[in-house]
């Protein structure tokens, strides 16, 4: 592997405190368009087969929020002089689904997890990882992998982006909802490293 990429993999701490960023109308429209196109392709007849999610509104919402978060992280890192690839807006069919990272920062993979302000008000500011036998986020098995967490406020069209951290630094907890325990792991904002 390229020595420069190896060096960058060791530290992607380009900022140390959460940064607020406004999300442009173009970003919101692109994320909305993607979410509407991708929802019917998820699983069989638009159902997340491994999570039994069949509510197309929820599927669309989840994809919309994810893309907005990815775009917010991209915006901040570009402002800090980083070279960013992604987000990926391609629509994959069935088993073509990619488990690739959400962004590449100077050639290094970066996952992005986003939660809305509304959801944070209900469950606490936190981000969820799939952790069941049927569906497991591959990043959980990569301790050196980097992830960036985002809180999205749709009303204000703003995101709060938290500094990147590595999986091995995270303290995982159980979800608030009892029905999700055993299938998901959660990172709570108050337990993020370095804050």
How would you characterize this protein structure?
Strands 1, 2, 3, 4, 6, 7 and 8 form a seven-stranded mixed beta sheet that branches. Strands 5-9 form a two-stranded antiparallel sheet. The protein has helices at 3-10, 25-38, 56-79, 117-123; strands at 19-22, 84-85, 103-105, 108-116, 126-130, 146-153, 158-161, 165-166, 184-188. It has 195 residues and is of the alpha+beta class. The protein is 27% helix and 22% strand. The two termini are 32 Å apart.
Please provide a brief summary of the model.
It is built from 4 helices and 9 strands. The protein has 195 residues and is α+β, with helices and mostly antiparallel strands. Strands 1, 2, 3, 4, 6, 7 and 8 form a 7-stranded mixed beta sheet that branches. A two-stranded antiparallel sheet has the order 5-9.
